[in-house]
Amino acid sequence: MLKKIRIGASIVFFTLITFYFIDFREVLPHRFHILEEIQFIPALLAVNLIILLAILLFTFLFGRIYCSSVCPMGVYQDIVAWFSKRFTGKKKKYTFSKAKNILRWSVLVVTFALFFAGFTTLLGLLDPYSAYGRMAVHLFKPVYMAGNNLLASIFTSFDNYTFYKVEITLLSVFSLIVAATTMLVIGYLAWKNGRTFCNTICPVGTILSIPARYSLFKVKIDTTKCNHCGACAKKCKASCIDSKNEKIDYTRCIDCFNCLGSCKQDALSFTARPMKTGHVRKEQEVDAGKRRFLTTALTTVATVPVAFAQEKAGVLSGRTSYTRKHPISPPGSISADHLLHHCTSCHLCVSKCPSGVLKPAFLEYGMGGVMQPRVYFEKGFCNYDCTICTEVCPNKALKPLSVDEKHRTQMGRVVFVEDLCIVLTDGTNCGACSEHCPTQAVKMEPYKDGLTIPVINQDICVGCGGCEFICPVRPYRAIYVEGNVVHQEAKIILEEKQEEIEIDSFGF
Questions:
Q1: Total Cβ atoms within 10 A of residue 210
Q2: For 427-438, what is the mean pLDDT?
Q3: Percent helix, strand and coil across the chain, each rounded to 5?
Q4: Ordered DSSP codes for 426-441
Q5: Which of 186, 273, 178, 183 is closest to 221 using CA atoms?
Q6: Which of 314, 365, 464, 498 is deepest in the core (most CB within 10 A)?
């Protein structure tokens, strides 16, 4: 019964979390982001004490049920292990192995030491929730969208428009490679040895192993019934049951309950009561093997910088080139530095952005900010009234903003390059940038020969990128947004209030 409950809970959590990541049609309402907020590392970085205390309390009571059913990466490993058993048949057996404590704790210490030193990338790579989120966004979502487009083609041929085609784009080559590598490596470990990642590399598993050791309810062995057949150890995906010595390593047990149904002697039970023993049992010894931890250097993909290609294109076209000095961090991020210390690159905001302007950064934020969200305006602009990314962020790397607060948040400031504007180069009117500016930070003023040219007011710009996106000049746009190092408060709200006061004073 316990195994069935665990499987049922795992399926529910895994399905909802996965679908929330890939759901581009917003079938699930945004309140389902609670599924992400109950993950351990996001709750830790968001200082969500209620969630943290709840996870620790449940671990103290029942062991690592979080790792068993709530963590999507844990369930992914179980799915892979299930398929491996089906392909290898009944010959698939696990064996007991000693805990690799030096490796586990070395990874944990190094990960958080680098995090506090400002290098968040390693924590983002090893956090099971964020790692799975990248897999969902970069691997599962394109497949889901392709299936949607196939259905759209079929249904529209019968004049049924229930489905509509969507554009499938490559968000980031680097993030795609990282996601694919993560899925293959962790999948391979799960195929061979079950929960190896959880009990050797995962920082969450290592942290929760402490309260799990002292949990109230545990899988216990009745030594008066045990005949040392080893059936339980062969079913243990965590490789934590030493049937010969009648011991269980509770720091690694993930409460899968596979062992309970395997024992024909009824010697195993999940209980808080002490089991009968036929002899005095010694405390479980800590693995003291002299294993050295080898740190793996992060490798980066050698790619041709886009800026270099653009510069060459600018030279060939005879147009002036420029370089954006500061990347544009998403609304609610406060600054790139705040993003660096809170974001683990789960890419939920990237997946949920309706305008598609959030994409994973490469080195724009530096090595510590690899894969964190950055605002791009090549294929869209940040909707003036949209706050979805700030609503769904589980880490509070993006602070929640109301629509009114979003209107006052200045991510960057507009910059006008007059030498590139077609009003000057081609002698023709345009005005597209002014038409798409929600704050009128870009206005058209008389130029010459009946032409009008953009004039900017950086103080009331919010950096939405409407002007940059719509500008027809290529390869370098004549108007673009320069990111703010720290987000500022735009003055447009103050001006609107002043206009309201003036209108009221005249009695209108």
A1: 12
A2: 92
A3: 45, 10, 45
A4: T-----HHHHT-SS-S
A5: 273
A6: 464
Q: What is the mean pLDDT of the segment spanning 9-13?
A: 94
Q: Helix, strand, or coil here: 186?
A: helix
Q: How far apart are CA 190 and CA 194, in angstroms?
A: 4
Instruction: Give Dmax (Cα) for the chain.
Output: 103
Q: Round to whole Å and give the CA distance between 225 and 202.
A: 35
pLDDT tens column, 82-120: 999 888 766 678 899 999 999 999 999 999 999 888 888
pTM: 0.83
Q: pLDDT category, 311, cuts 50, 70, 90? A: very low
What confidence tier does 27 reach under pLDDT thresholds 50, 70, 90? confident
Give the list of residues 6+ apart from residue 426 with CB closer than 8 angstroms, or none: none
Angstrom distance (rounded) from CA 148 to CA 121:
33
Calpha distance 414→486 (Å, rounded) = 15
Gap between the Cα atoms of 253 and 350, Å rounded: 34
For residue 36, how far is the Cα from the chain centroid?
Answer: 9
Q: What is the distance between the alpha carbons of residues 362 and 378, in angstroms, rounded to a whole number? A: 16
Q: Which amino acid is at 86?
A: R
Contact criterion met (CB below 8 Å) for 240 and 248: yes
* CA 59 to chain centroid: 24
As a whole number of angstroms, the distance between CA 452 and CA 41 comes to: 53
Angle at the Cα of 18 from the Cα atoms of 12 and 21, rounded to 5 degrees: 140
The token pair at 257 is 């309950």
Which residues are registered as beta bridge partners of 415?
Answer: 480
CB 442 within 8 A of CB 433: yes
- CA dist., res. 114 & res. 112, Å (int): 5
